[in-house]
Amino acid sequence: MSIxxxxxxxxxxLKTMGAEGPVNITTDEIFGGKKVLLFAVPGAFTPGCxxxxxxxxxxxxxxxxxxxxxxIACMAVNDAFVxxxxxxxxxxxxxxxxxxxxxxxxxxxxxxxxxxxxxLGKRCQRFAMLVEDGTIxxxxxxxxxxxxxxxxxxxxxxx
Length: 159
Description:
The structure is a single chain. This protein is an alpha/beta fold. It has one domain: Glutaredoxin (3-Layer(aba) Sandwich). Helices cover 29% and strands 30% of the residues. It is an enzyme of class 1 (oxidoreductase). Keywords: Antioxidant, Oxidoreductase, Peroxidase, Redox-active center. Thiol-specific peroxidase that catalyzes the reduction of hydrogen peroxide and organic hydroperoxides to water and alcohols, respectively. Plays a role in cell protection against oxidative stress by detoxifying peroxides.
């Protein structure tokens, strides 16, 4: 069952890239006392994610933050090394690149995607959410392929 608007973000630990390598970052550190726009993609370096989803957030990062968002975070079921390399390739310096390497946070959210038919294993569905002090205020999960309800442009209209 998928998490819903009004519910608290589950306590989990993700990874991000630090100066010395991957470091743990808890959901409380990410979401506690902040307004966060988190968007998730099925996989780093995949066509829809690289050509459409991330670029929309990169181009609009200043506008999103000017609307009161403290952090824009991008998450995928990939490791911290891949997320860091992808962030650099996308010029995504304004985004917090989060690795959910084992899919634990994705499972806790109830937003798993079985992409084993494509050779990708368990991934996360494509979605975007606004989280205010750890509570979800908006959740947009893509109903199928493509980037529409989770795009930067759609989420900006909700700010």
